[in-house]
Amino acid sequence: MSAIPADIDLYAEIERLRKERKAVVLAHYYQEAEIQDLADYIGDSLQLAKAARDTDAEVIVFCGVHFMAETAKILNPSRKVVLPDMAAGCSLADSCPAPALAAWREANPDHLVVSYINCSAGVKAHSDIICTSSNAKRVIESLPPERPILFAPDRNLGAYLIRETGREMDLWQGTCIVHETFSERSLVELMAEYPDAKVIAHPECEPQVTRLAHHVGSTSSLLKYAAESEHQRFIVATEPGIIHQMERAAPDKEYIPLPGQDESCACNECPFMRLNTVEKLYLCLRDLKPEILMPETLRQAALKPLARMMDLG
Length: 313
Ligand code: 13P
Ligand code: SF4
Prior knowledge:
The protein is of the alpha/beta class. The protein folds into 3 domains: 10-89 and 273-294, Rossmann fold; 92-176, Rossmann fold (3-Layer(aba) Sandwich), CATH 3.40.50.10800; 179-257, NadA-like (Rossmann fold, 3-Layer(aba) Sandwich), CATH 3.40.50.10800. The chain has helices spanning 10-20, 33-38, 45-54, 66-75, 91-94, 98-107, 121-125, 136-141, 155-165, 184-193, 207-210, 219-228, 243-249, 278-287, 296-311, and strands at 23-28, 41-43, 59-63, 80-82, 112-116, 129-131, 149-152, 170-171, 198-201, 215-216, 233-237, 254-257. Strands 2-1-3-4 form a 4-stranded parallel sheet, sandwiched between helices. It binds 1,3-dihydroxyacetonephosphate and iron/sulfur cluster. The site of iron/sulfur cluster (SF4) has 13 residues, from helix 5.
C-alpha cells in the first residue's frame, strides 16, 4: 500500500474516484462517523446485503467487516468488491471454522443448520438457511416444526431466539467480543441514574442485558425505535457508532452509550469495524484493493442458504 501524498484533498479525491470508478460506497452503522457521512448507503447487515445485490455500480466499496463484503460478492459476483482493511474480521465469524461446523452437522444429520450472517462463506456453504438480526425470528418461524435446529455461531442471539420463538435449538458457543462486554451491573447502574431512559439492546448482548431492555433489535431496528419513540432518553447497548445516525434522525434526544466492563477502554467499539478509516477508503478506491475473491464453487454453495433467506422477503 503506497503512501498518500500530503498535498491532496482526501475528500475531493474520494468524490472524484467514486465517479471515475463507477463505485458505490456502502457503510455499516458501526463505522466511524466520517465514513458514514461519505457513504452512498448506510444500513444494517440485511439492508447492506440487499443494496449490494441490487446495485449496478461496477465497484462496491464495503465499509464494514469481511463477512459483509464477502456476502456482497456472493450476491453480486460480477461486481468488484473491495474492503478498506482486509483484517476487519469478526469474533463471531472467527469462533466457527467451516470444518468444525461441517463436523457438527455430520454428527446431527437430522438437524437443520441456521447460521447467523456473521460467519464465513465456508460456514454459509454448510448451512440450510442464513439469518440476520433483523429477520432471525421470521427465519426460525419459517422452519418445519418437527425438524430440530443447530444454530451458529452466536449463542446470545440463539438464546434470545429460543426465548422469543419458544423453539428449542442447539447453540454454537460463539460470542461477539463487543456485545459480551456489556454487563448487567453497569446497565443497572445507568438505569438507576436515568430512570426515564429506555434501554435499547442488540440481541448479540448477553441474556442478562437483553432481559432488561425495553427494545431488542438489529441496528436498524434500534435506530427506528429511538427515532419514533415518544421518549427522550436512551441507553444504547450496542456499538456506539450507531449513535451518529440516531443523532441525525432525532437530534433533540439523548443517547447514552453503555460502556464496556472496563470503563477506561473503548471496548464497546468494534475493533474490527474501526480498522477502516477515511485514508484506507481513499486507497481502496484508488487501487481497487484489497479485493474479495472466492472460488466459484464456494460462492454457489454459500449463495443457496443466503438466497433462501432473501426469498423470505
Ligand atoms: P446488524 O445486522 O444488526 O447491523 O448487526 C451486525 C453486527 O455485526 C452487529 O454486531
Ligand atoms: Fe462482529 Fe461484534 Fe464487531 Fe459485529 S460488533 S462485527 S458481531 S465483532
